[in-house]
Write a structure and sequence with these properties.
8 helices; Lysozyme; mainly alpha
């Protein structure tokens, strides 16, 4: 990885902004609150504790928007990667909700892979990494998802994320 890329990704990870949305107008805030209510209802079976569920969704929305991603895409990816399990570990060693590989903490973080089990850290890393792959693939989401999963060029993983994403869309979204 080029030093400039490593520096840019490291800076994106290091920003310590809290996941609190800010809105320019009442309509945008109302749309967010409708989204939060709808997603909370859909996620209730997987995350039964209300406060944890809301904090999770607020953070997903914040980190997705911060990285220029759709929250529905990020939720679909999380569903496929970890089934919404905070402490999931894959056979390859990927960790947390977005199944981030520990080498990323050495490449663009502080090297502490245990932090990948921290909700905001995991979601931030995952969203920044996916954004990076989208940039490399010039906006081609299919190829970017393949890179994210280490299966570039194969359809199974991107198709699974696309299918899961549909479950997290708001009515009228495509």
């Amino acid at each position: 990885m080029a030093d400039a890329v490593r520096s840019a990704l490291g800076a994106a990870i290091a920003q310590n902004a809290p996941p609190r949305p800010r809105f320019d107008d009442v309509e945008a805030r109302m749309a967010y609150l409708r989204w939060l209510g709808a997603m909370s209802e859909r996620l209730k079976k997987r995350k039964t504790e209300t406060q944890i569920r809301i904090e999770f969704l607020e953070t997903v929305w914040y980190e997705a928007k911060r990285a220029g991603l759709e929250p529905s895409l990020v939720l679909g990816l999380i569903q496929v990667e970890s089934g919404f399990r905070k402490y999931a570990i894959s056979t390859a060693g990927a960790r947390g909700y977005m199944q981030v590989m520990p080498f990323w903490t050495r490449a663009i973080g502080d090297g502490n892979a245990s932090r990948l089990f921290h909700m905001q850290t995991n979601l931030r890393f995952g969203c920044v990494i996916l954004r990076h792959y989208l940039d490399i693939e010039k906006g081609d989401l299919f190829l970017a998802l393949g890179r994210y999963n280490g299966s570039r060029g194969r359809a199974e993983y991107p198709n699974a994320v696309f299918a899961s994403r549909r479950q997290w869309l708001m009515p009228g979204e495509r």
